[in-house]
Amino acid sequence: MREKANQIWGNFSIKRKLLISMLGITFFCCMIIGCISYAISYELVSDYSDKFVCNTMSQVANELNGKAKYMNDIVYDISLSGDLQANIKKLKQKNVSDYERLEKIRSIREFLMVQLCKSPEINGVYIYPYQEDCVYASQLNAAKPLNLSKYSQKKGYSFWTYNDEELIVGKAIYDISNMNYLGNIIVTINKSYFSDAFSKLSFTQDDNYLIVDERNKLVYCEKNVDEDLFCKIESGNKENVSTFAYGGKTYQSCTFDIQLLSWTVSNVIQDSFKQNALFRLKMITGLVFAGIFIFVISTISIISKQISYPLVRLSESMENLTKGKFKTNLSVGVKYKDEIGILRDSYNRMVVEMEGLLRECETEKILKQEAKIHELQMQMNPHFLYNTLDTINWLANDIGAKEISEVTRAMGILFRFSLGKEMWISLEEELDAIEQYMIIQKYRYGENLSVNVEIAEEQLYEEIPRHLILPLVENSIEHGFCETRKKLTIAVKIQQKEDEMIIRVEDDGAGMTEGELKSLYQWMNKSQSADIRKQEHMGIALKNINARLKLYYGEESGVSIFSQKYQGSVIVLSIKNKQRELKVLERNLFD
Known about the structure:
Elements: H1 2-11, H2 14-79, H3 82-92, H4 98-116, E1 122-129, E2 135-138, H5 149-153, E3 159-162, E4 166-174, E5 181-190, H6 192-195, E6 208-212, E7 218-221, H7 227-234, E8 242-246, E9 249-258, E10 263-270, H8 272-322, H9 339-399, H10 402-418, E11 424-426, H11 427-445, E12 449-454, E13 463-465, H12 470-480, E14 488-496, E15 500-507, H13 514-524, H14 536-553, E16 558-564, E17 568-576, H15 577-590
Parallel strand pairs: 12-14
Antiparallel strand pairs: 1-2, 1-5, 3-4, 4-5, 6-7, 6-10, 8-9, 9-10, 11-13, 14-15, 15-17, 16-17
């Protein structure tokens, strides 16, 4: 079964494979990301919804607390009024006349009418002097509150209660001079005074808000609520959102304390508030992923076509190539530099090269024969010169011309050294060539020329490019002598440091001026404007050596020159160890 599936899959075109693979990967990734995103978003929306409800109800509780405090302050200010207390104390006197009594009652009523206007929600203000009838000011013909003992029991603190139509707040009045009990003040308030806190709130169409006293008795509710639903609301945790089912529906409730009243305020909303938010989240998530999926399908179709079409063309061209049609080139629209473009260009180059190779095969024998003849000619010329120098050396020995014999012998050795086939030689071989060169120069300069070589024995077998040091010694001799320098000493020093090998060729000859040194550096750096005049030969040699060092050992290696007029010159060759080791390894691998 598995082999059959692999066979079916293998027979699909590349375009179809790419399309199916990318669609599968995209769908899988979208499902994973979608599920994770929805789960996270669900938690965030739920938390946000619960926090929003809690924060809103907390603000409602604070607003109700503020309204209660405002009304307590009104009652407190009335009870502490000096005029009110003076009038009450006058009424309590036994020898007060009826006229004075009526005047004091009128004064109290006028004072209460002023207090009645402080808030439109106040229905009435009632003063109960001790052992006297009620003196009151009222906007309505409402019944006077009774059960005054509750207010006197609070010892001066406000006490809130209610009836079917009003909220009632009252407190005992105490003489501010001696704290004697004078009576009670009671203020009746319209229940709409608290309902204003809910008027701007709307979570759902079926919102309901309840105020419950300390005995779990319903003080106020916006809409009627049956006893079972009321019990479920009150059983919820305070300051947290509680979710419960009732009547086939899901509700949420949140309860906060009204601290000044020892009452609680609760809301009850249908769970559709959260469900609506989650439904919108589902719709948005679905639309986003549908858009992504459509975009991915379109993009994959375009990309798969761009990948498969050149490969199909390449396959067709290769099939033609097997039939000997070398004129087949791939030219597919715009030339891109991606992997397929590189493959196409490489294939085209291969076709051109194969066609060229076929043409070259026709002349290969002729070229080989010409190369062989040229090689034989190159071998004959050096042998002819070697034989000529040997003949001169033999004749010089025969007639007793020792100097001519030594010079001729040295020239022969130098000639063989210069025409050697090996590109790389040991330092020992290079120094031997310098020694032969000095034998020839000694016959010209005599004791006026000397060369000293400093090198550790283990360095003699280090390999360097042929003709690296000898041209520097030749330059020192050629340019070191002048009218003020009749003698010349040359020192060749080879040192091995931690990260490089240093070759120094020093002389105490004529040296160079700063301008000549600058021109020499310009020549070495391929500056066409450099004017080196008599140093032209030196510049060519140094330029060649500098280029060879950088070619063989990298850009960090090269030639440095230090010189002062009539003080001599120092040529320093720097060869980095790492590049030198890599070069040795390369030669060992390919030699």
